[in-house]
Amino acid sequence: MPSRTLPVAAMLTATALACGAAATPALAEETPAAASAFGRLATYPVFQNVPAGVDPADETVAEISAVSEDGRTLVYTDAAGKRIGFLDLTDPSQPTGLGTVDLAELGHADDQPTSVAIVGDHVLVVVDETGGAFTEPKGRLDVLRLSDRERVASIDLGGQPDSIAISHDGKVAAIAIENQRDEEIEVDGVEGGLPQAPGGFVQVVKLTAAKPSSWKAQPVSFSSPSAQATLADAGLYAPTDPEPEYVAFGPDGTLAVTMQENNGVALVDVRTRKLTGAFSTGTLTATGFDTTKDKRIDASGSLVDVPREPDSIAWVDEHHVATANEGDLFGGTRGWSIFDVRTGELAWDAGTSYEQLAIAHGVYNDDRAGKKGPEPEGLAVAEFGGTPYAFVASERSNIVVVYDVSDPVEPEFVQTLFATNGPEGILPIPGHDLLAVSSEVDEADAGVRASVSLFGFGAGDTSQPSLVSDAVDGQAIGWLALGALSADPADAGTLYTANDSALKTTSIFTVDVTGSPARITDALEVTDGGAPASLDVEGIFARPQGGFWLASEGTTGAGNALIRTDASGAIVESIALPADISSHVGKWGLEGVTATTDATGDEVVYVALQRPLWSDPAAASGPIDGEGVTRIGRYDVATGDWTWFGVQLAATSTPGDWMGLSEIVAVDEDTLAVIERDKLNGPAAAVKRVVAVELGGVEGIAGVGAPGDLPVLSTSAVVDVLPALRAVNGWTQEKLEGLAIAADGRVYAVTDNDGLKDATGETVFLRLGSAADLF
After folding, report:
1. Is residue 496 part of a domain?
2. Under a CB-based contact definition with an 8 Å cutoff, are residues 48 and 321 in contact?
3. Would you indicate the residue range of the signal peptide (predicted)?
4. Which of 185, 336, 611, 615 is deepest in the core (most CB within 10 A)?
5. What is the pLDDT of residues 145-199, one digit of tens each?
6. Residue 570 falls within a domain, yes or no?
7. Number of structural domains, the chain?
């Protein structure tokens, strides 16, 4: 089959059509929750399933998964732990661990599972035995009985395997033998370049024999003269070193094989074990990407003639395949494509729309801007309720984007699902109305763990996303790390929020809360002397007098400042903390700001310090005001005077944990509301709550004061927010950081997603009820 790629002009036309038909409406209006196809049922951290004697803090992941025919047992690969794990899905809202099988028991301690499938009562585990010996790749297929996990066969694969797929009739297994390149070897000036012998191929295993011990692997050569001619004629890069990556069976049994580094797709007849065709996946030229790692979200960059380099592949119908274009050597087009296998032509391309969805949902990872952006890697297509859906996972933005592919040349965006870090394995389970997403990144030091997320078709929590941004001039408003929240004093449907130092420049975002999800409709850049300001905003207050108060946290005590802007965002005043206070503040400083008007009509500003004043702020030791006592400061605008009050924080018994304040809001002249939280997330999260603090005419003190002088205010718990954070059935977020009482008395809260650094990136926007009821 000859290679047929669209000319650049036609490709741009296809991209423009894709963006116009799918991306722009998606950014303008998220599918309402009531119409969401999939809701999240549960998130299972796989560290909870490690064998006895294994430290739960050790790295353990879930990369690729498979499910038993009855839908009750899920098996996942854990390359980091050199094992496969088993989960019970009998109640998908409460999956339970069923233990693991260590590969050391089957082969060698360095063996790694790369993929898994289930056929009847047999688990087929693809194992990489290469151990870094790139010139001598080897691997095997282990067959285990699902019932007792005993190995009943082990088949030499003659090379380093990657993925496995089972034919629709269950009679054939196909395995991509990648024979991966050494990324540290330079070839023709390209680090990790091709060719690097030996080349890869595909193994075919007929599963028709009753006993797996009689199954045999039969290779499909990609290096025979005829196969080489097919690959070369298709225009694949370095065809003499084919590297099959992902395999998928079509409706008629044709096997489609991606060759990521070669930038192409091959077609195989598994009955004859012949390569029957191939096509290049071509390149993309388009504008509308964030291509510079600079702590800014600026999607004005371009990709010019960039190879798609597809990773996973799935059949959309008998004539079309979809590819997730992660990229590797030279490219990655930050989206996904659909090709007509009859001609090899591009039928549809996501263009800039996939990255734009990541930006709109607050999960664009700027750390990857200069490389492959959101890196779409996992992909699957399956039919639920009579509708074919495509699921495309972003490795770096931790989302799965769902599309209706009823028309394969015009997919329609449906919704965005949040996963934990590095979602790769996408496993539709249509017979049980389930979708399983397994994540390959485990960050135990940050408490963010690899997991299997389960979503129900027409079931589960559909409250996420709870906050998205609109598009302005065709570009989604970029946002991250919302550590502050304030009400518009005159408009009950409007709130304001701001980003912290996860972004280089500071913006104040307007949030429309009249619908669900809430929408970021505008971004106001904060400026200092006409130049963009770079602050670490942790608190915001929209002044009835106009403009904003901002609480900016510093890396040291002296860097903390109370800042006032005008309505245009220009800084008109910057007020440092008193030196005798800032000298005792460590890296946990200002976390909230609010204001009231006193009986004389003068403006009074209150700020919250996250943690106590320290004798030694660098070491966060020696709390000056007593164990677990932090401070609220009062700033009288008319006089410039500061006075201080104490707040007793709850205690924590978890090693390494601490308690702190995250926000402050004036309920009335005598009552403040503060967020109190621990620093834990996921199943370990314990304290995320709103507390009322009573001023009641208490006089504060100036400066540090003598021991015992600081008045510690009376507090009472108002609402435990932890159940609401857990109710979304995802990874429980650590940083509950924004709180606001709207003009109509409704209470809202938001989590800071940390700009995806040591975090899943998911932002949870909460509606907590009426202030009259809560306070």
Report:
1. yes
2. no
3. 1-28
4. 336
5. 999 999 999 999 999 999 999 999 999 999 999 999 999 999 999 999 999 999 9
6. yes
7. 1
